[in-house]
Amino acid sequence: MPLVANTALPAFERLRDEGHEVLSVERAEHQDIRELHVGLLNMMPDAALEATERQFLRLLGSSNRIVQFFVHPFTVRGVTRDDAAREHVDRYYKTFEQIKSEGLDALVITGANPMESDITRETFWEGLLEVMAWAGKYVCSTYCSCLASHAAFKVYHGIERTPYREKLWGVYSHRVVHRNHPLVSGINTRFETPHSRWNDVPSAKIEAAGMKVLAESKEAGVLAAVSSDQFRFLYFQGHPEYDANSLLKEYKREVMRFVEGKRADYPPFPENYIRAEAASLLNEYKEKVVAAVNRGRSPPPFPEAGAERYVDNTWTDTGKAVFNNWLGLVYQITDRDRRVPYMKGVDPDDPLGLAGKKASTSVA
User: Fold this and answer.
1) DSSP at 69
2) What is the Cα–Cα distance from 224 to 238, expressed in whole angstroms?
3) Can you tell me the distance from the alpha carbon of 92 to that of 364, in angstroms, rounded to the nearest whole number?
4) Do 92 and 53 contact (CB within 8 A), yes or no?
5) Quick one: which of 6, 49, 92, 347 has the most CB atoms within 10 Å?
6) What is residue 298's predicted lDDT score, i.e. its pLDDT?
7) Using CA atoms, how far apart are residues 287 and 139, in angstroms rounded to an integer?
8) Taking a C-beta distance cutoff of 8 angstroms, is the pair 171, 244 a contact?
9) What's the rounded Cα separation, in Å, for the pair 95 and 23?
10) What is the pLDDT of residue 24?
11) CATH assignment of 3-242+313-333, given 3.20.20.80, 3.40.50.880, 3.30.70.360, 3.40.30.10?
12) Residue 213 phi, psi (nearest 5)
């Protein structure tokens, strides 16, 4: 699915440099290929704002090539930004009012950095709910990442997330639970995906509320689930969009918080992620940091480039497969008018026609 650089968003040029196919609007106009318009509600903090754009664009752009893919990034009120990030948003993002007026075929809602134990007290809460309510009526399918999934669980199903004592972060093995669901068609029955979160919603609560769990892990819990109609909303607690170095960068940020006195303990490694070679390098660095902090001195630079050589990406192929399945299904049932969620004849309560079909299950 070729990406179309329908704006001057810098992420498009970055992806071109990485070898991804990105069409100009002029070239796209000369191709007799159907368009799909996908929104990207980006709520990630400033440090991850542009990286998150690129991560989801890579997954979206790696899907099948039967349509041209137009991306429409936007944000909501209440997301706090510094001057540089606010300028980026003002320059390259649309407003939600524009999004509503023009319509979308599909929508991705990113996670966000949780600042409150009560999710309803987040500064962006009301803005997020407004988008989700609109999407539930006018968008064919919405992919919710991490905190966005927890928001939907609470609002639509009354399910409260459960906080962990320590942050769950690392790369975990998962198994497909319902193998005949078209969203997981062709995916390995066992695969790895990163998680990075402080809260959890378990499978028992999700299934009891009428939703369906598609993939889960013994260690990390539910990765993917779908709404009761099995397509209108996709819920992910993990991060198949992450780059190979995303968890390393998170680890670096936590180390810097220790240096700045914002956390009392030195952070542990993300689980199942740091290879022995990187661990040796980072443990040596830890000794230097602790010694420097104890002496009131500045530590040496974080050895990011050295450690990055020894981290692996074992999940992107699965992420691409999920997005390929998802957007292929959107293509089949969405109306050509992107302000209308489904073509004529599609049952909004069972858009994929799965009602009554027996699920093939596998114990995770």
Assistant:
1) E
2) 8
3) 42
4) no
5) 49
6) 94
7) 52
8) no
9) 24
10) 75
11) 3.40.50.880
12) -85, 130
Of 72, 34, 65, the closest CA to residue 335 belongs to 34
Number of H helices, E strands in the chain: 12, 11
> Within 13 Å and on the Cβ side, how many CA atoms surround 339?
5
Which residues are annotated as catalytic? 146, 239, 241
Q: What is the mean pLDDT of each run of 10 residues along the chain (364 residues)?
A: 77 75 64 82 95 94 79 94 96 97 98 94 96 97 97 96 96 95 94 97 97 97 97 97 97 96 96 96 97 95 96 95 93 94 95 72 40
**What does the block give as tokens for 42?**
């980006």
At position 183, the amino acid (one-letter code) is L
The pair of three-digit structure tokens given for residue 251, joined into one six-digit string? 């680890």
Start-end ranges of CATH 3.40.50.880 in the chain?
A: 3-242+313-333
Q: For residue 331, what are the CA distances in angstroms to 68, 81, 334?
A: 11, 35, 6
The two three-digit tokens of residue 321, written as one number: 């497969």
Task: Let me know: does 223 contact 315? Beta carbons within 8 Å.
Answer: no
Neighbours of 228 (CB within 10 A): 14
* pLDDT at position 165: 93
Structure confidence at residue 327 (pLDDT): 93
CA–CA separation, 144 and 46 (whole Å): 19
Q: SS3 letters for 239-298?
A: CCCCCCCHHHHHHHHHHHHHHCCCCCCCCCCCECCCCHHHHHHHHHHHHHHHHHHHCCCC
Distance (Å, whole) CA 232 – CA 137: 9
pLDDT at 364: 35
